[in-house]
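The authors assume throughout that readers already know how a fold can be written as discrete tokens. Each protein is reduced to its one-letter sequence and a matching series of backbone shape codes. I therefore recommend that a typical entry be quoted early in the introduction. For illustration, here is how one protein appears when written out as sequence plus structure tokens:
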Amino acid sequence: MANLRAGLIGLGSMGRHHARNLRSIDGVDLVAVADPGGDPHGVAGSLEVLPDVEALIAQGVDYVVVATPTVYHEAIGLALADAGVHALIEKPLAADTGAARRLAEAFASKGLVGATGHIERYNPSLQSLRKRLEAGDLGDLYQITTRRQGPFPARIADVGVVKDLASHDVDLTAWVTQRKFELVAARTMSKAGRQYEDMVSATCQLEGGLMSNHLVNWLTPTKERLTVVTGEKGMFVADTLTADLTFYANGQVATTWDDIAQFRGVSEGDVTRFAISKPEPLRTEHEAFRDAVLGKDADIVTLEQGARVVEVCEAMIQSAKTGQFISVS
């Protein structure tokens, strides 16, 4: 069978990594690239840098990766859907919930494969965590906490920290727990002089009463990427910077010291750091999307899920403005 013909629009800091992976995975040929701003990182190689999505479609592509600024996602995605071209669209899926839903509906109505580029879902530590939670290794889930902090990335210009960074945590939280967000409360701040927020602290409720907390900012001088899930049998800690997953078990040793024994909580048990395979998350994402286009079973972030993430992010922003809990439909 002939290789899939892939196109890429957006040759910026994320586009260059997409180009590298499109050239390295089996069964795919990168045949066309487009960016009206040119090719700042020199990723086109021998390919002509086309001016727009229409020129890209004219090359007869099977699917396209959209790595442009968020504001252009809707127009580009709708053009691809109208042309019958599958698409992997970088996160956030669109600038607002309405645009995200229109994209999801357009691809669904044409029977096309559409996915959102929430790369963190493919981090090896979170992939392993999801399987272990599904197997019941933690028992009843009590709380999930994420911390995603670091310095401001100069590449971001059209969204704030909620839609750019917190969107990762919204998606991974819903995915690893397999529960939807129901209520959102948040506080945001803007300290860097930009029009968008650069810090958010959110407290949320997911299905079944599961509590989640998310601390995200662009104001910390060192990077932190942690997901902590606490449950009946202990706690999992996933560090997505190192792709490490560690389990802290509740202790099973009886406490005979009377003063301590009066505390009826949990005690410290064994600590296990799992040895897991660590492929590049972006490559795993591309391989999953390729398989989906080929009609195989594949774990992709659907456009419907991508739209849901945008909705939760907008609920965080609305909550910060109103000081109220916001219900997510």
